[in-house]
User: Fold this.
Amino acid sequence: MRALAAVTILIGVAAVPVAASASRITKPGRPTGVTAVALDESAAVSWTAPGSDGGSPITGYTVTASHGGSNCTTTGATTCTVTGLTNGLRYKVSVRASNVKGEGAASARVKVTPTSLPAVSFVVDSSFYPASAAELTLTQPSSGSVQVNFATSDGPEAALAWGAWVGAASSFSPSTETVTFAPGQTVASIPFTVDPTNVDGCSVYYVSMDICYPSVTVTLDDPTNALLGSTLVTNLFYES
Assistant:
């Protein structure tokens, strides 16, 4: 009788399902989309979070530059500035993400050469105009005058509930010109005249209220006393 009871108990224990184990935590994946903008003895680095956090929240990032391992860290932000670099020396920069398991693999490396020259770029890569100005910025003030040329071309098509847009650079003037930053100035804008403001060419499917606005692509080129920055192209969508 005792033997039978023991067998019954053993069978009962064996029949109990094993609890599902907790998901295995690993180190996070590689950050992507790394960019580095040259500054005076430093570099502003930005990136995109990795596709996998390894099953545990990312606790921070470390940016490392070659030639001595200068670095900067964050506790979650996806941008930081590496300082202590030498102007004129080309560096390779990579980013690693960390979680409770430690640092993950390094991102693809990007090259950057610090310089005392500022970098010029657009503030945003698209905007409604003239509600938002076609605004440019320098990464740092310059003791001398900075100039950069721009040229326009037909912008992209787009559609919203109240209207549609089609590329029509001919509506925007000037089509090409030079923007000048005075010494110490870090922000400038391009004033456009838009005429006509209602154009042809929008797809019938998108047109609402018979409004077809022009759009334009503006591209920066050939700076003087500056470098080209990270956002060299912006799309403007005219809206009355």
About this structure: The longest strand covers residues 212-224. The two ends are 94 Å apart (CA to CA). DSSP finds one helix and 21 strands in the chain. Confidence is low (pLDDT under 50) at residues 1-21.
